[in-house]
């Protein structure tokens, strides 16, 4: 970004940068963000207003005398942002221009007060990103103040000099603001970039309609599409869309992000199709705390002891055929996995033979958190792992005894594997350099809310 993107800083923080229809996400940037945006944007906007003023031609003498003018400083003692319902943003600012007039015999220092008023509608562009434009821009000037009492210019010089400076600033300032907005729109285009989910998967966000703007917030719907090997992950079509209720999350938060059930279903479907939820749990004979071997299993199943008189390491091949399901109830998020587990032992030909297989149901508590711009999760097992026999090549099996073994050798590797995946997280929709700060997570019936402050860092 260029250094003139000061207004961009203001407007990025005011624009909703996330949302969706199916999978559904709705983002509300609340009016509480305006004070932060105004304070953070003062310095960049001051730089944007520091324009070049051409020489003034002094006609008071017998010959035209060109006088050089330099803006030394632009100070914004006041900057205010306001949401205009059904429209966008109104920016009002008070600016003081400190100027040096290279007048003969001594330079002259002036301060020129000005008020700036900018109306910026917020809409949707054709590529699916927010777009900001300038509908009105006005600058109003007070009389110039001579800062050096020892060098007072004659009114005959001061009046035309001020008119010259005002005319130049009025012609340039709004154009400079318009240029900043155009560079901002390029920055907002990063909303539609692909964000990595896994080694072969990404998520892409884009707007599906124009933002809803009230006096209290800007709300935006964005379509979230997850890709695996370049192909989109699609949920079945439905006729309903996600609507975020009012007054959810933390009161006074800068941003309120609502994430519907659909977003979680899409993410889990992607993980299943990618195969990353599958895993192999391998026993180690020389490990004191790993009991996944034929010697221990043979104590529970006589046929295993007969076939394997010498201890051999076992392998649990865990495969997810059914799609994982997440359930969202008020203050409670749960995840259910239904893996098919095959217990394998080494065969004489260096291959593996199947001893038996199990249908497993695992219920997990799901805790969500946001780090940077990524929604991440961690899980813990709820109750006992439920197992039923699918097939056996070693005769009768006492399922109560196998249950104890599964609780010992299956739960911890499964949790470690699953939490490593969920810890990577999925990027929430965002533009470059915008982060969620001190977020809070709320679980409601059928959706999750993230309430957060925002931080813009270059």
Automatic annotation (TrEMBL):
Xref: Pfam families: LBP_BPI_CETP, LBP_BPI_CETP_C
Domain Lipid-binding serum glycoprotein C-terminal: 249-452
Signal peptide: 1-20
Domain of life: Eukaryota
MF-aspect GO terms: lipid binding
SMART domains: BPI2
SUPFAM superfamilies given in the database record: Bactericidal permeability-increasing protein, BPI
Gene3D superfamilies, per the entry: Bactericidal permeability-increasing protein, domain 1 (3.15.10.10), Bactericidal permeability-increasing protein, domain 2 (3.15.20.10)
InterPro entries linked to this entry: Bactericidal_perm-incr_a/b_dom, BPI_fold-BPI/LBP, Lipid-bd_serum_glycop_C, Lipid-bd_serum_glycop_N
Keywords linked to the UniProt accession: Signal
PANTHER family per UniProt: BPI FOLD-CONTAINING FAMILY B MEMBER 2 (PTHR46019:SF1), BPI FOLD-CONTAINING FAMILY B MEMBER 4-RELATED (PTHR46019)
Family: Belongs to the BPI/LBP/Plunc superfamily. BPI/LBP family.
Name the record gives this protein: BPI fold containing family B member 2
Gene it is expressed from: BPIFB2
């Amino acid at each position: 970004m260029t250094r003139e993107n000061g207004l961009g800083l203001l407007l990025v923080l005011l624009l909703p940068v996330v949302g969706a229809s199916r999978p559904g996400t709705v983002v509300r940037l609340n009016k509480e963000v305006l004070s932060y945006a105004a304070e953070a944007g003062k310095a960049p906007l001051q730089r944007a207003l520091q324009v070049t003023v051409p020489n003034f031609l002094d006609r008071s003498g017998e010959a035209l005398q060109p006088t050089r003018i330099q803006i030394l400083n632009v100070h914004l003692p006041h900057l205010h942002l306001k949401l205009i319902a059904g429209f966008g943003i109104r920016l009002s600012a008070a600016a003081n221009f400190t100027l040096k007039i290279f007048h003969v015999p001594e330079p002259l220092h002036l301060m020129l007060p000005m008020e700036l008023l900018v109306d910026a509608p917020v809409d949707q562009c054709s590529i699916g990103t927010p777009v900001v434009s300038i509908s009105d821009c006005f600058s109003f000037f007070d009389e110039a103040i001579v800062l050096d009492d020892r060098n007072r210019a004659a009114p005959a010089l001061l009046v035309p000099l001020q008119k010259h400076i005002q005319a130049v600033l009025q012609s340039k300032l709004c154009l400079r603001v318009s240029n900043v907005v155009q560079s901002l729109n390029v920055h907002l285009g990063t909303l539609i970039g692909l964000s990595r989910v896994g080694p072969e998967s990404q998520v892409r966000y884009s707007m599906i309609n124009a933002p809803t703007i009230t006096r209290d917030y800007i709300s935006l719907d964005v379509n979230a599409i997850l890709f695996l090997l370049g192909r989109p992950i699609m949920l079945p079509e439905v006729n309903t869309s996600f609507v975020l209720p009012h007054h959810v999350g933390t009161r006074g938060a800068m941003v309120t992000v609502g994430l519907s059930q659909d977003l979680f279903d899409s993410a889990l479907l992607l993980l299943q199709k990618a195969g990353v939820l599958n895993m192999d749990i391998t026993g180690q004979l020389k490990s004191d705390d790993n009991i996944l071997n034929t010697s221990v299993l043979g104590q529970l199943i006589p046929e295993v002891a007969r076939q394997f008189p010498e201890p051999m390491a076992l392998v649990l091949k865990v495969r997810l055929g059914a799609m994982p399901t997440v359930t969202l109830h008020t203050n409670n998020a749960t995840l259910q996995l239904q893996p098919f587990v095959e217990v394998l032992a080494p065969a004489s030909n260096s291959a593996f033979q199947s001893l038996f297989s199990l249908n497993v149901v695992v219920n997990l508590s799901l805790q969500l958190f946001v780090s940077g711009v990524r929604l991440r999760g961690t899980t813990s097992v709820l109750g006992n792992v439920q197992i039923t026999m699918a097939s056996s090549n070693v005769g009768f099996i006492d399922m109560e005894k196998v249950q104890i073994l599964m609780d010992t050798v299956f739960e911890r590797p499964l949790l470690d594997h699953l939490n490593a995946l969920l810890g990577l997280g999925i990027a929430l929709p965002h533009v470059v350099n915008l982060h969620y700060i001190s977020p809070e997570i709320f679980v409601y019936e059928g959706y999750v809310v993230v309430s957060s402050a925002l931080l813009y860092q270059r």
